[in-house]
Structure formats: C-alpha cells, structure tokens
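forwarding from the other thread:

> can someone predict this with S-adenosylmethionine?

sure thing
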Amino acid sequence: MTNEQYFTPNPSSPSSPYVIDVALPDGTLHLTTDRGVFSYGALDTGTRLLLLKAPQPPATGNLLDLGCGVGPIALTLARRSPSATVWALDVNERAVALCRQNAVANDISNVHACLPDDVPDDITFDCIWSNPPIHIGKVALHELLLRWLARLSDTGTAIMVVQRHLGSDSLQAWLTAQGYPTERLSSAKGFRLLITRRCAVAS
Ligand SMILES: C[S@@+](CC[C@H](N)C(=O)[O-])C[C@H]1O[C@@H](n2cnc3c(N)ncnc32)[C@H](O)[C@@H]1O
C-alpha cells in the first residue's frame, strides 16, 4: 500500500487493470481503470454529474479535457462531438496511456491524449471540460487554470465540477475576480458544476 497521489507522473503502484462500464444517456463507455490513476474501479461522482448536466459541447473545433485520467470526460466529449478534435491532457503517463487505450476500445478516433507540454502552442479551445485536480494545492491549481483558461477561444466556455467542501464556492469567486466570470450551472451530492466564460475584451 503506497500513499501515491493520482497526479504522480509515473505511478509506481503495480498495475492491476479493472474494467468498468459507465452507462450514460448517450450510451455506455467501457473503461479500463488502473491503480495509480484517479478513480480506480468506479466513475467519480463529480465526473458523473458533469457528464449528465453539462450543455452540449461545440460540434467542431478543439475541445479540451483538462486532467483526463482514464478518459470518461474526453471520450464523452468525443462521442457527443464526433467532428471535433478532443485534447485529453494529463501529467500522469499511465492515465494518458489508458485514455488512449480506452478511446480505441470504444471505437472513438477523435481523441488526442497527451502530456500538457505536447499541445501545440497555437491551438485554442472552443470548450474545456474538467474535473480539476483540486488536491495539487491551491497555488498549483490556480496556475493550472490560468494557463489553460487563457487558451479558450473568444466564445469558449469551461465547464468544471468541484466538490463544495473542497472549495467550489471560493474557486468560483476567485475565477470571477481573475476576469473569468463564473456561475453555478448545477449542484448535486455535494458537487457544484461551474461554467466559466472569457470576459469580452474591449476593442
Ligand atoms: C480529479 S482527476 C479527474 C480525472 C478524470 N477526468 C475523471 O473525471 O475521472 C484530475 C486529473 O488531473 C490530472 N492532473 C494533475 N495535475 C495536472 C496538470 N498539471 N495538468 C494536467 N493534468 C493534471 C491528475 O493526474 C488527474 O488525472
């Protein structure tokens, strides 16, 4: 038993793959999960809320799953927007490999799973969906969000799910104060679903 965190770049915990079926209104995903990766053996409750309540993503363009884990969000984005390109990012290499493998296993071909620094600098995102890694700490989380929210297209939105007792309301206020107006879309089982927009830039 280790205390390894799910955001370790190269998990040392022995691999022990476990397949779960995730039933959603638009079909079932078959996902291989593993030790050393977020949400081993079950879909996270917050992720489920996001997948059930998020608005329809843009039909085309570049869409981002920030912190993809084994890929439930990325694969759902890809299935709902088959003409878009979905970028699935994670610092955990085991997660990136599983997300890729899960895309193939579910016959999904428009997901590009990679490490954050492998995303070309000139790409902007028409939407971001994320169950963000709150446990990396507030400073690192804020840096991470500012890095990727800056790459939203002018009309792009970010949909994020955050547990109330892990600071969803203060995160909402902080994002708004940073110039990213953020509202609550939905709330259930102790989680908040937030929508963040780019502030219109005065010309
Ligand atoms: C709460 S988990 C969500 C995983 C997956 N999206 C899901 O819903 O099951 C957050 C993910 O963010 C990843 N992460 C942590 N720091 C990151 C960073 N700097 N850039 C990208 N991903 C990161 C973690 O490794 C983890 O897989």
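The CA atoms of residues 49 and 146 lie 24 Å apart. thats all i got for now
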